[in-house]
Specification:
Elements lengths: L2 H38 L14 H13 L3 H13 L7 H12 L4 H13 L7 H13 L3 H13 L7 H13 L5 H9 L4 H26 L1
């Protein structure tokens, strides 16, 4: 085999390996999201009440509130269509209500809308849109959005590959108690040089300090 053919062969092998690693990582995130969905059946969403409780009765209460612009009601209604709670499952309707709530700043809705763009569920798959909505939710402390945003930076989907940003968002998700984030952070760290790790740690500390101040101001 010539040197040129050998190089091509190894590049193909490397590409297959990288695809497998990326697929495995995303599968882990999808498993995390599934657990998140299952948890919502018994636990309240991050910023609203539990829409699974008394679904049919709740629907009658939610519709007028959502129509009048209540972001929390809009998210709840979107979640019910997303999960088929008291209504036939309808992802397009879910996306519509998620968008209304997301545009008003509801972090849970921003994450779920980002997820729909991430996987192309009822909307065209668009990693840039996914990153946009994940970022909005992540900046508000939505843990899964931080994890998924880190993944996009880690793998260059919708954003340029940036291991410093990936490490930062993985770190924040890990600090919030996400189970997958620590390993994701460790994997990213293995690809980084000490200077990048130091920079990422500084950005993480800065974000935590800023949001601690913001949280303190909101309490007062």
């Amino acid at each position: 085999m010539s040197n040129t053919m050998t190089k091509v062969f190894f590049k193909l092998i490397l590409a297959v390996v990288l695809l497998a690693v990326g697929a495995g990582a995303r599968a882990g995130l999808q498993e995390e999201l599934h657990s998140h969905h299952e948890g919502h059946k018994k636990d309240a969403p991050a910023h609203c009440e539990d829409p699974a409780a008394g679904a049919e009765v709740k629907l009658k209460e939610l519709r007028p509130l959502a129509a009048n612009g209540d972001a929390c009601a809009q998210f709840d209604l979107g979640f019910m269509y997303d999960r088929g709670l008291g209504v036939p499952q309808d992802y397009k309707e879910a996306a519509s209500w998620y968008r209304k709530a997301a545009e008003q700043g509801n972090a849970s809705a921003q994450f779920y809308l980002g997820q729909m763009y991430d996987i192309g569920n009822s909307v065209p798959q668009d990693y840039q849109e996914a990153a946009l909505w994940y970022r909005k939710a992540a900046e508000q402390g939505e843990t899964l959005a931080q994890l998924y945003l880190g993944f996009l930076y880690d793998h260059g989907q919708g954003v340029a590959v940036d291991l410093v940003q990936a490490y930062k968002w993985y770190s924040l998700a890990a600090a919030a108690g996400n189970d997958i984030a620590p390993q994701s952070k460790k994997t990213a760290e293995a690809k980084m040089v000490p200077k990048e790790i130091k920079e990422a740690q500084a950005l993480t500390d800065e974000w935590l300090a800023q949001h601690k101040v913001m949280h303190s101001m909101m309490k007062h």
